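haha ok so turns out i had the wrong file open the whole time. this is the CORRECT one, sorry everyone. sequence first:
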Amino acid sequence: MAVDPKVTLKIPRPLYEQLGKIIEGSGFRSVNEFIVYVLRDLVSLKGEGTRKEEGLTKDEVEAIKRRLKQLGYF
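then structure:
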């Protein structure tokens, strides 16, 4: 029997609905797709250490973290 490679994550419905409004017109096809994108980005930041990466600045990362905290993720 194969193990399903995906799991279900439960978040409060008001947060889900807010995220739905936030992603309207953004190119994300679903709240789930957006959440996976954000979480992958956060995980990749954790492994950066002292490497110099092109992409988001430290200030941009902090702004994202603040916004996620406002949305209830931290």
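The two ends are 36 Å apart (CA to CA).
again sry for the mixup
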